Amino acid sequence: MKQKSKSVLEFDKIIEKLSNYAETSNGKKEVLKLDVSSDVEAVKFKQNQTSQALSIIMEKGNPPLGGISDIKEYARRGAVGGIISLRGLLNCADTLRAARLLKNYVLLNNKEERNYSLLEELCEGIFTDKDTEDKIYHVVISEEEIADDASPELKRIRREIQIKNNAIKNKINTIVNSSAMQKYLQENIVTMRNDRYVIPVRKEYRSMVRGIIHDQSSTGSTLFIEPMAVVEMTNDISNLKIEEKKEVERILLELSGLIGEISEQMLINQEILTELDFIFAKGKYAISLNAVEPKVNDRGYIRIKKGRHPLIDPKVVVPIDAWLGDKFRTLIITGPNTGGKTVSIKTLGLFSLMGMAGLHIPAEYGTEISVFSAVYADIGDEQSIEQSLSTFSSHMTNIVKIMKEVDEKSFVLFDELGAGTDPTEGAALAISILDTLHERNIVTAATTHYSELKLYALNTVGVINGSVEFNVETLSPTYKLLIGVPGKSNAFEISRKLGLSNDIIDKAKKSIETEKVEFEDALKQIEDNRVYIEEKRREIERLDEQSRKKHSDFLAKERKSLEKSEKLVDEANYEARKIVENAKREAAEIIKELKKLNLEMDKDKSRRVNELRQTLNDKSKELDENQYTEQIFQEDTYDTDSPISNGDAVTVRSLNQKGFVISDTDNQQNVMVQIGLIKMKVKKSDLIKIKSDEEVKQKNNTTRMVKLKTSSISPVIDLRGLNLDEALLELDKYLDDAFMSNLNEIQVIHGKGMGILREGITQFLKKHKHVKESRLGSFNEGGDGVTIVTFK
């Protein structure tokens, strides 16, 4: 029944969709084996794996899973000393390469705030062997060809075969084109029969041409003869091909041995790569659903926030809010047909299964699911003509099985419980079934049309009504799930809207028991009150939002006005300080000149100069106490972070002169400063520490070196000899440097080869942020081996 319930809730369809996100055949098989877990810690672990996969994909893009093959058979063959085919060797090399790239993808360039510990732990167990990769790629060109450079012996043999072939071609062409042979030949051509060069000779001239007959035409008039002059040469080629085959087998055996030596590590890699493909498939599927990691508990509590059924078109699905299992363990949902009742309980069941399988849920943060021993569901039309079972009988058969298997840790879902039989008996059975589950404290959700179940929910502690909203004005459901509100059938209102006369409706009402009419009227009053309260709540939220916005705008304007006034004060003080500083500088220059002419000055003038200097210093001190004047000194050459000590370069504020401290500064108010040839005692508070000329010069040199680096970038980059991933890393860095150097156009040399490097670079350039356009080079630019790139 558990497996049938999963099918009813369409969990198998979720698995099928998930398998489409697996990149490898083994990964797809692993997805198809996915099942739910009843262990809360195991579920949390699986959810954490999915979260880390989602996070790393969002940060770094899709993982490099291409090229992974099932190499178990090849690894085992290599381990026992067998020869692996060319295709098998390439698959092994591709898988080794994919493992290395995936390991780097997970372990390298991770941000400190990111936590990928579960994925990193898996990837640390991945074995890499780039030497074996390179050896295989160097030797094996394709699934049908080995490179001539695979070994010196193979290269020699193939060169001799080529030489022999050329000699045979020259010899036989000479025979065919000789005037003496022309009359014996059917045509002046050379062809092949049984890998031997032959010429078409007329049958009547057979005795005139010495050689071996290999074939004849359908009419028998033409014989295909291998001239005796080339028979021996062709035999030599046959012997060389035998040698070539042996050498190829030796090379393949050697490469197979390399795979055999690391077969155990490769088999472990296979398991890790399969697991990673499975985990990344969960992450990619979560991204496609815009899903979140749910909280997980084991106390039967479910809370769905804006949950969207994953199999309904995202453009039309209506999110639902639902909670169950805390203050109440049984939820009874009522409402009209096609109103969304079935979708609601399917969403509850499917979300529980997805969460227990480690899959994220298409809902909002704050969603919580519980781990159950099993999820049971009886949903849909189970009528079976083949077994002569009615809808009621089929449903009851399922319910009997569920009631036998269910335990206190189960989650049970019923759709239209008790339907398909006499309403009175059906309602009684439904109440009895729900009450039995409720007494056992089993979490249950059920849908129904019966008013008796609404009353049962109202009168039973731990059982609550729910309903799907229906708009009587438009005669259409809204598909919203309401918890705590029993649904109303709306049959009379819908009939009146559709045009049924009031007399008929009133007569129908009279035929219903008074208590039921009063109950339905009460439900209508509750629904009207709920709608009114909901409208008022939305109005309050709208007014509150407007109030918050106006308050925020007011604070922003006030802050802007304050900043503007402060800026004006700053600018005024700054300008004032500049004026005084200029005046100080000019006064200092005058004083300096006067000192030189000190002998020519009388005492009165000297005293007057000292008075003026003292006045100037007092004004400067007043400005020093102003909080806004400090910005005048915040230049790149000032050092305000460290204390002044002996030997430091300083500026004397009062004199605006640079000098050096030449005395100890500890616990001293005054220090000795040397300015040029003059030594004077100055207050420590009158000094500002500055950077020395050497430090300023060093900074300028550093800036100049950066400029020189960007100006010396070559307009050509050669990527030949690199594999695609290495080439793209080099190219990405080079494009940034070239762009910063203001180059308009550059050349990327990638060679012709098999076109893999060229195609990969072309696709990469199409998406690069600095590239305006790219094209293959013209004949005089290098042709297909060069790509010309123009920057934006």
Automatic annotation (TrEMBL):
Protein's UniProt keywords contain Nucleotide-binding: yes
Keywords, alphabetical: ATP-binding, Coiled coil, DNA-binding, Endonuclease, Hydrolase, Nuclease, Nucleotide-binding, RNA-binding, rRNA-binding
Domain of life of the native organism: Bacteria
EC number assigned by the record: 3.1.-.-, 3.6.4.-
GO biological process: mismatch repair; negative regulation of DNA recombination; rescue of stalled ribosome
SMART domains named in the record: MUTSac (SM00534), MUTSd (SM00533), SMR (SM00463)
Coiled coil: 505-607
Gene3D superfamilies per record: 3.30.1370.110, P-loop containing nucleotide triphosphate hydrolases (3.40.50.300)
Domain Smr: 717-792
Family matches, as HAMAP family: MutS2 (MF_00092)
Function comment: Acts as a ribosome collision sensor, splitting the ribosome into its 2 subunits. Detects stalled/collided 70S ribosomes which it binds and splits by an ATP-hydrolysis driven conformational change. Acts upstream of the ribosome quality control system (RQC), a ribosome-associated complex that mediates the extraction of incompletely synthesized nascent chains from stalled ribosomes and their subsequent degradation. Probably generates substrates for RQC. Endonuclease that is involved in the suppression of homologous recombination and thus may have a key role in the control of bacterial genetic diversity.
The protein's assembly and partners: Homodimer. Binds to stalled ribosomes, contacting rRNA.
Name the record gives this protein: Endonuclease MutS2
Originating species: Sedimentibacter saalensis
Origin organism lineage: Bacteria, Bacillati, Bacillota, Tissierellia, Sedimentibacter
